[in-house]
Design goal:
The chain is of the alpha/beta class. The protein folds into two domains: 153 residues, Rossmann fold; 154 residues, Response regulator (Rossmann fold, 3-Layer(aba) Sandwich), CATH 3.40.50.2300. Helices cover 36% and strands 20% of the residues. The protein contains eleven helices and 13 strands. It has a seven-stranded mixed β-sheet with strand order 1-3-2-4-5-6-12, with helices on both faces. It has a six-stranded mixed β-sheet with strand order 8-7-9-10-11-13, sandwiched between helices. Helix 4 links the parallel strand 4 and strand 5. Helix 3 runs parallel beside helix 4 and helix 5 runs parallel beside helix 6.
Amino acid sequence: MNPMRWLPVAAAALLLAGCTQPAGNKTSGAPGAKGKFSAGVVTDAGGIDDQSFNASAWAGLKKAIDEGVVEGRYIESKEQSDYQTNLSSLAEQGYKLVFAVGYLMEDALKEVAGRHPETKFAIIDGSAPDLPNCVAVKFREEEGTFLAGFLAARMSKTGAVAFVGGMESPLMKRFEVGFRAGAETGKPGAKVLVKYIGSWVDVARGKELALAAIKDGADVLMHAAGKGGLGVLDAAAEKGLYGIGVDADQDGLHEGRILTSVMKRVDVAVYETTVNAAKGDWKAGERVLGLKENGLSLSPMRFTKSAVPAATLSAIDDLKARIAAGELKVPSTDAGLKGFVAPAVK
């Protein structure tokens, strides 16, 4: 993430949130003092510099700030106990829209949203309380990782690929199962090694698990582990193998060694939600985004596309179109995967 100019903050806000860092256009007085709509992002414990999930959410709000649509800031959470405090802090400061980044904030949001009906809340990847000031934005992650698994299996020389997740959960299962289904489609009988770090921030553990998977034969490794996944990408690059990034376009972290990234357009979701709310267009409830809605995509593969056979690229385009059209249903659970029949590929 490129360096940015951060706003000064009041000492009271710093006391409320252990590691509070404001950003965006410089403001004075309370949020909205100059008539602009105000919005804030509360990161999960992975932090703003994870170059993945949190960074993508902030990029979406930063775009709205840079366009002059809103004024805004973020607050970093260092641990789960910070979530409720940080959400409350932004609401109490007068921010009109607050983003809770990650499903681990579900309980905190339930505690905070009802006490601040004048504040709109949007949670990314989690379920929102059934309140008129809350919206949940979710994704069909399995659709994006299906394409990544297909590409990984097609590019593998050993016939073994790996998926390294952060913390096991139904959300992570969607990532994992989609990848496994894609690998089976790309190369029937492909071996998929699955490992979980148990953390979103443990880079060293991510690297350790990746090296273990490489030792067991995996030569293409995907992560879905927030900051911890940076260790997976480091391990793949050091061994001269391919890694696959997630959430943001991480291809530039190790040029030529990150095959692609499954871009989960959290940035687009945050940007659009912010702009619409600023215009008075607010819809509570739930939004679910997939390939059809352009909520997910593979990165442009700036540094690796020339290494991918044309037939593989064409097959990915075909599979993407079939998924978007509803012709191909990607499984998202182990039970669904058991009944999955890999489609014929052109």
